[in-house]
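Notes from hallway chat w/ T.B., transcribed later so I don't forget. T.B. wanted the structure written out for a chain they're using in a teaching module, and asked if we could keep both sequence and structure tokens in one place. Agreed to drop them here.
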Amino acid sequence: MKKDIDNHIPEVEHVYVVAAFEYNSIFKVEEWTIYLVNDNTEALETVLVVSKGESKTKTTSVLRKKLEVLPAKSIAKLEFLHEDVLEVDNIFQVTYFLNGKLMHKDFKFPKYSLKSKDIKALPLLTSKGIIAE
């Protein structure tokens, strides 16, 4: 069993969770939309995303999303962040296979970190926003 486990855990590269600050034409407001970005030249397979918000006094519902494949150089919309959850740490646990290797990374938007004055260009998106830590 041990022989099947890599001694080197690969570091996640070119995969991001981003918050894009976008205009919602239906509700006529600007809001934060969360995307998973695959900036690799290979597809991500069996992608699992678990998201939650937490602080010392508050916890949000846990959301789970599965994507069979996220093609190379593409994005997937995950969710909208309501104003109420900007006051907690928003954590996105992303697990996937890349070239047959299991990859995992926890991305985090610390509480109060999503501010429209801090937006920048995002990979593969025309919208501007913030990349999770």
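Follow-up for T.B.: The first strand starts at residue 15 and ends at 24. Might be a good example for the class.
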